[in-house]
Amino acid sequence: MPINREFSARARVVAEGLEARQLDGLLLTLGPNLTYLSGFTGSNGALLVTPRRRLLFTDPRYTLQAGQETDCEVRTARKALLTEVASAIRRLKLKRLAYEPARMTCEAMHEFEAALPLGTVLVPVTEWIERQRMVKSPTEIDAIRRSVRVNSEAYEQVMTMVKPGMSERDIAAELEYRMRRLGAEKPSFETIVASGKRTALPHAQPTSARLKPRDMLLVDMGAFLDGYASDMTRTAFVGTPTRKAEAVYAAVLEAQLTAIEAVRPGLEAYKVDQAARRVLREFDLDDLFTHSTGHGLGLEIHEPPRLGRRDRTLLEVGMAITIEPGVYHEDFGGIRIEDTVLVTATGCEVLTPTSKELRVLG
Ligand code: ZN
Ligand code: ZN
Fold it and tell me: Any idea which ligand is nearest the CA of 235?
């Protein structure tokens, strides 16, 4: 389906939602939901969705770009965007309007309310479009596949050159450089490179610390390609790992494979988390698994569903999620293994091609 037709198909689903909720319109401020329904990627925009129309407001810097990216009616604002939106609401006689408090500042909200015609009813909505975004279209899945491939290829290229003496920052710079050379727009989050005991920090930022013999090396990286994210973690070893490290690696891998095995449509998200946790409990490592098993990804690196202890979202065909159990201890370090997977009719497809066999570098 041509991408523009996809935007209008998404908007039709929203229009049905407006009707069901007895709303006249939905206001989206800048962010992934706005991009999802319009295609617009500029840095200043607001989108007004009514049952029949989509009005995209932006400023003169983006008029041309908006014309190229979206099939919405583009309104170039001379004043503050939300003041222009309020004028349109008056003209279109919209009475009940939904908005997203999570994506608006208090300041913008006050400004907007002051400009609205008297009697407009504002209805806060949370995770409406995010829920719609959970199931990906074939075009989106294709972008995620390509993003995953580029990400893994960048990792592969850099791992062949990693050796003791390289700093975490050097490695992160190489990974991001390769990723872009291979076609990514940018990393989908700040690349995590941690060596030695710093691997115990699940979200370590790369430092000037240099890789030493017998260190562990944890890399968590993702790319944005055509706007879509990938996400992968691998933990490798410089020289032969200790017996203990080898045993923990095997346990984390078993937890990851068991969680992947559990994924199927109709299953509640938290059950995937349970599957990973149960394996780590057998090894008495579950207390050291301090985050959730995974998350959805797409236009954002973290999207619903959350594969944590409580999310009862039913998995559906076409959801793209990560599976990433990990074990962290300040004396020992940390080991995490993460793949991007796609929920399919029969279970799931692991999109990440990178090997999960214990890898010894240099
Ligand atoms: Zn990750
Ligand atoms: Zn992740």
Answer: 1
Q: What are 114-146's pLDDT values in tens digits?
A: 999 999 999 999 999 999 999 999 999 999 999
Distance 230 CA to ligand 2 centre (A): 9
Q: How far is the CA of 231 from the centre of ligand 2 (A)?
A: 5
| pLDDT tens, position by position, 184-232 | 999 999 999 999 999 999 999 999 999 999 999 999 999 999 999 999 9
353 vs 197: CA distance, rounded Å: 27
Of all ligands present, the nearest one to the C-alpha of 151 is 1
CA 124 to centroid of ligand 2, rounded, Å: 29
In the chain the beta strands, taken as DSSP E runs, fall at 25-29, 46-49, 54-58, 73-76, 96-99, 121-124, 186-187, 192-195, 216-221, 223-225, 228-229, 232-238, 294-296, 303-307, 320-323, 326-329, 333-336, 339-344, 347-350, 359-361
Q: Which ligand is nearest to the CA of 294?
A: 2
Distance CA 295, CA 199 (A): 21
Residue 119 region by backbone torsions, left for phi larger than 0, else alpha for psi between -120 and 50, else beta: left
Q: Residue 294 C-alpha to ligand 2 middle, in angstroms?
A: 6
Q: Is residue 192 within 8 Å of residue 334, measured between CB atoms?
A: no
- In this structure, which residues have their CB less than 5 angstroms from ion ligand 2? 231, 322
